[in-house]
Specification:
alpha/beta, 181 residues, Rossmann fold, globular, 41% helix, binds S-adenosylmethionine, 7 strands
């Protein structure tokens, strides 16, 4: 009996892993940034950089396992929304919010299919080509004063109000960019 349960668990885990890998591969073929979670320390730095205020609306574009949403909720009483294209990560992020007893929304959606005009803060950890495309969308949609916090990849034509170094030995990489629309 024990071995049957163990074999079922292993089979389910393998199926989940295969599904996750298949979706990640499709995403990569579509030119989408892969799932690389922001290190927790840097997620906290990004949230600190955003200086969240109570009741602000916070988005994470490509929310992965929901860690930036959770870090935001730990910092302030904000309204969080993750947008994520990988259905496995949507479920994982929702599960983690539930596990931590936190309220938040994670939408299974392409980041370009959502309108961000109600955002106060937008977090990004994506790709240079995606940031280039996003800056046009942000120009049209973001209200004045919205903060954009991006890890590693800047908005190419926007001047950051501030940058934050995250790693001592790589001074020109791995920056956090803080912008104000
Ligand atoms: C580098 S990971 C960052 C994950 C998370 N934001 C974090 O900081 O840990 C990029 C995430 O964006 C998602 N993604 C990439 N392109 C997307 C798109 N066009 N629409 C929705 N999600 C997307 C990927 O599935 C992945 O989870």
């Amino acid at each position: 009996m024990f071995f049957l349960i163990l074999a079922t668990i292993i089979l389910l885990c393998s199926l989940l892993l295969t599904g996750f890998m298949a979706l990640s591969t499709v995403g990569l073929l579509l030119g989408r940034p892969p799932y690389v979670p922001t290190p927790q320390r840097i997620a906290r730095l990004m949230v600190q950089a955003a200086k969240l205020l109570p009741h602000e609306r916070v988005y994470d574009l490509g929310s992965g396992d929901g860690r930036l949403l959770l870090a935001s909720l730990k910092q302030a009483d904000v309204i969080v929304t993750g947008i994520e294209g990988n259905s496995f990560l949507v479920l994982l992020g929702r599960f983690r919010l539930w596990l931590m007893g936190k309220k938040g929304t994670i939408l299974w959606k392409n980041i370009f299919a959502h309108n961000y005009s109600d955002a106060d803060v937008v977090f990004c950890y994506l790709f240079p080509s995606v940031m280039k495309k996003l800056q046009e969308k942000f120009k049209k949609e973001l209200k004045k004063g919205t903060r954009v916090v991006s890890y590693c990849f800047p908005l190419p034509e926007w001047k950051p109000g501030k940058t934050f170094q995250t790693q001592e030995k790589k001074p020109n990489n791995f920056l956090i960019y803080l912008y104000q629309a």
